[in-house]
Amino acid sequence: MLKINNLSAKIDNKSILQDFKLEINPGEVHAIMGPNGSGKSTLSNILSGKKGYDVTGEVLFENSDLFSLETEERAHKGIFLAFQYPLEIPGVNTNVFLKTSLNAIKKARGEKELDAIQFLKLVKEKAKELKFDEEKLGRQLNVGFSGGEKKKNEILQMSILNPKLSILDETDSGLDIDALKTVADGVNALRKKNNSFLIITHYQRLLEYIKPDFVHVLMNGKIIKSGGPDLALELEKKGYENIN
Amino acid sequence: MEEQLKIDFEKKLKDFSYSDQEKKFKETNFKEFLKQGFPNRKLESWKFSDLNQIIKSNIGELTFYNDYKKENQIDKIQLISDLEHNKLIVIDGKIEKIDFKFEEKDKIEVLVEQGEETIKENINSLINLNNAFSNKFCKIIIKKNYSLKKPLVIYHSTNKNTQSKNTNSRIDFKLEENACLRLIDIFKDNTEKNFLNIYYNFELDKSSILKNYKIDKSINNNVKYSYNNVKQEANSISETFILSSGSKFFKNEINCNLQGQHSSAFVNGIFDLDDENHHEIKSNINHLVENTKSYQLVKSVLEKKSKAVYQGKIFVSSEAQKTDGYQLSNAILLSENSEFNAKPELEIYADDVKCSHGSSSGSLDENSIFYLMSRGLNYKEAKKLLINGFLLDVIEKITDEEIKNLIKNLLGVKE
Ligand SMILES: Nc1ncnc2c1ncn2[C@@H]1O[C@H](COP(=O)(O)OP(=O)(O)OP(=O)(O)O)[C@@H](O)[C@H]1O
Ligand SMILES: [Mg+2]
User: Whose CB among A116, A214, A221, B144 lies 3.0–4.6 Å from B176's, allowing a Cys bridge?
Assistant: First the structure.
């Protein structure tokens, strides 16, 4: 599904990712762990199409060149990024935003757009599953949301958009224990349908709820070690300095 | 220009048989305008908008005489269709039609030929120009305790052949105690190179409410100036909302005298400018007695080489304790060549007051754009959503639901 070959990225001549390689197949869950500043969010941003990086290398998504696609086209094709720091968008109603987003994607795929009633039904159902307070959907997008509520809102968007590849950038940071479980349930529900995940986290705990197929350690812009779920446990014990 | 002015003024005086008093009033004003000419940047309140220069470069030579005996065609004007309303139609400065068909006849008085105006007004030279050249004097009185059932829409238009002309119109309004008027000004002139000069006087008696919405949305190449002079007695409320967008140049000036206790003034506006349009809002809120309140919020979205100016002044006299004055402006610059100038001014002579002001401007937040695009919106859609969100709080300040919806539709703000 996703194939990253020799990806290097720089900002203002500062190298952030170097010869990064990763392959994700349908239905797989990959976890990336790595110290602050190692390039995890940069990777997520590049995959989603954020501008401002000098990149070399190749990224294929379902065999097509990702770099030839605009940000919104990547979303249309099924790439979703749950932001480490979701943005506050004043004056934009959360429900209106969710509907605009879902219908933009449906339209691009040539699918039938949802009308207001169908949409509300869907959003209610998903909000309930994720124990997301419906009242918040009537508010301005992320404005006045707590840190955890913002993260849950990202997962709500994910479950509504039903993406093929979801990148979760530290979605677990700032979530309470119950929220962590509901978020994991949301991920696992999508996973059943053969969707793939790239989960960025600092904590082994999330991976107890979402069992990854692979765990990678990212340091200084490179994957220095890959393994199964046990690698996360080892990391938690030893720390990044003593791995290898 | 002076030559033309004199010829046109002579013609003007011959048109009607003015009483000596009227004639004198006009002559005094004319002389004053001759002396001062169009305002230029040497005047503090015109330093961001040099009207003299703007007229020179956009119009060139103007003529000032309009034949008011001639009937103008009014059926060409596109009326608002989704809102029931009373109408007043002004073409080339002449009132062609007044229609209060939704109202009780004895609750509204319209005086058309009152000529006892003698006050020499020294507001600025454009008011002098207006007094010298405007047609008959029109005054609309809303009687005590009467609230108009439907809004009054004033359509401002020009004949399709009108070009390089200055047109002047003046209307006075009196809202008696506890009366209420919703007044919408719609600018429907799609001509070019004209200078429209509009002057309103409002007297708001005790507990009366005026809501004035000025909508300049249709694109035209004219230059406009509008002056609202509002006097407010106790407990009266004035709400002004300006959507400044379609004209080449538009300066809206609002002067509010809060002279009765617990009176309040709200001035809100949106600059939605493109191309090389240059618009200004200038407000003077004068808090003259205790316990008065003013609130101002102006938001700008500026494309290309457009320029917006907001000069908001809050004056608090020494008697005006417990004044509450607030003023804020925010601008989004969508191009490197667009420009926003804010000049807040507080002049406070009382000590127990609550006054604040603030201003900010910046470009569209690229991270927010990325966030929205990552959810499947293209750049244009993301930008539109962000801009609508940015404008929403000022639109929400409109207290009349019907008119709020009308303006939302005009701006393409969906919910
Ligand atoms: N726009 C930018 N300009 C300059 N440097 C940047 C920019 N964005 C990221 N960096 C730098 O690139 C490096 C990687 O940043 P990144 O955000 O990808 O780290 P991260 O692994 O996500 O860290 P964390 O665990 O703290 O979220 C950091 O040193 C950061 O300072
Ligand atoms: Mg990060």
Answer: B144
